[in-house]
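Researcher: Please translate sequence to structure tokens.
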Amino acid sequence: MTDTEKKAAHKQRLEQKTDVTSRLSETTRFVAFGIVAWVFAVQASDAEFSKTYIQTYEIWINTAGALAVISIAGDYFQYLCAYLSVKHALTRKEQGYKFNRNHPAYFLQTAFFIIKQFAVGLGSIAIATTFALHVFLN
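Model: Translation complete:
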């Protein structure tokens, strides 16, 4: 593989990474807001199904809602840190405007990305598990 081919492949991988990261963020946001809506709908419902579901799994339902809110906040803070990281990179003319991997905003951007994925994943598991148990056991 020539240097030109390597550079083209590297550029393509970076574009794929950007696309996948963007899609993950969109999906996380969509799922997190869905969980919040689900929790609100179940809590506000007078249906017998909702009443028994809440009575049996209230801690897990509320935990899923809290995790979804954490995921939404993580999404916001990830983008805020990305903004700050880019702003800092733009001050690094001598370094070719490269990101400073030691800058707190750069580190926190990645940390919030991981936090929001983890939180929405756990919240989704809690909702799916409790709902399935409630449906199949009642």
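Researcher: Any highlights?
Model: The two ends are 61 Å apart (CA to CA).
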